[in-house]
Amino acid sequence: MNKTLKNTFQLNIGPQHPSTHGVLRCIEELDGERIKSLDFVVGYLHRGMEKMAENMTCLQYLPVVDRVDYLSGFFCSQAYLSAIETSLNFELPKKAQYIRVLTMELNRISSHLLWLASFLMDLGATSPYFYCFRERESILDIFENITGARMMYNYYTFGGVKSDISAEILDKIAEFLDEFPSHVKEYENIITNNPIFLDRTKEIGVISLKQAQNFGLTGVNLRASGSKADLRKDKPYLIYSELDFDVPFSIYGDAYTRYQMRIREMLESRKIALQCIEWLRKNISDDKVNLNINSKTVKIDEGLTIGSVEAPRGEIMCWLWGNGTNTPERVKWRTPSFYALQVLPEIMKGKMYSDLMSAFGSLDVIMPEVDR
């Protein structure tokens, strides 16, 4: 027998593959159907999001920020503007803070709905896709009414938001939120106890709390492994300290648990949004939604300021180095998908090839956010 022959072979998945959620190349070394090693090639979507900031004024860069994570535009804007507003000691009007929180929590629901739809598609189930997009379309209609755009909003501005939310739009949001729990129940009737779904997700892609912390995971991917870390509770920003909501967490850390946590998180976002609507209805006559700053003259103080936000995929941080002008000297983004991707080779070593997409899909990785 020729002892030099290898018993393993290399398999490429992507970079053109529907289940890699963008342009990602997975290089697997397989021993039979077990994964012996796993590596990734990223950078196919690199857009120079950080470098562009060095050649743009703060105002010019603001519309670009929505595209750091195109499914979490409000959160990216909040992280970036938080850094600038901290540097300039801006205190936002209370109404603007409530509007930002309301729109962000609706954005969290829409992001989780798209994740759920695509995750089930990865596993071969098509029906949930249409259910989830039905509600997501309703949220995008609301965003279009508020901002004029369905995905790239450019709605937040220095010192607040660009326009108020009318009583009619608040009523439309409230109507959607009143119906939403019944729709979540529809999803769960199809998914939660489905034997095929259970086989594909239970005890698949298990991440221990130690692994999650060592690899820098945040958001649901961390909370599903036993941590209660959530910036909205740990380091409250805007008006989160005034709101009543829970942080769902679990200890099992598998793909099924990450599904459960996102379902529960959508319902908590609904609870937050309803509280925002209640406050805004009581203060509808207050028309102060921004500080009326001349954004063309905004100049960032010298030194480093950091803005952070609890986004749907985890913590987004924006480091901003100012030099006393209206053009940042340096902008650096810390986004959660990059860290979620790194943990996969660790947790999939020795596991079945057929379980890779279950584990990968459950982490909610957005490739443009990885590459930036």
Write the layout of secondary structure elements.
Layout: E1 9-13, E2 25-31, E3 34-41, H1 49-53, H2 58-65, H3 73-87, H4 94-122, H5 127-147, E4 156-157, E5 160-161, H6 167-191, H7 195-201, H8 209-214, H9 220-223, H10 231-234, H11 255-282, E6 303-311, E7 314-322, E8 330-334, H12 336-348, H13 356-362, H14 367-371
Antiparallel strand pairs: 1-2, 2-3, 4-5, 6-7, 7-8
Description:
The protein is α+β, with helices and mostly antiparallel strands. The chain has one domain (46-371): Cytochrome-c3 Hydrogenase, chain B (Orthogonal Bundle). 48% of the residues lie in helices and 13% in strands. It contains 14 helices and eight strands. It has a three-stranded antiparallel β-sheet with strand order 1-2-3. Helix 3 (73-87) runs antiparallel to helix 4 and helix 6 packs antiparallel against helix 11 (255-282). The longest helix is centred in the first third of the chain and has 29 residues, at 94-122. The radius of gyration is 21 Å and the shape is globular. The termini are far apart.
**Total tally of structural domains:** 1
Helix- and strand-based class? alpha+beta
Strand content: 5-15%
Annotated CATH topology = Cytochrome-c3 Hydrogenase, chain B
Q: Which percent bin holds the helix content?
A: 40-55%
Number of strands: 8
Q: Unreliable runs, pLDDT <50, ≥5 residues?
A: none
- Residue-averaged pLDDT, rounded? 91
Count helical runs: 14
Write a concise synopsis of the structure shown:
This protein has 372 residues and is of the alpha+beta class. It has a single domain (46-371), classed as Cytochrome-c3 Hydrogenase, chain B, CATH 1.10.645. It has 14 helices and eight strands.
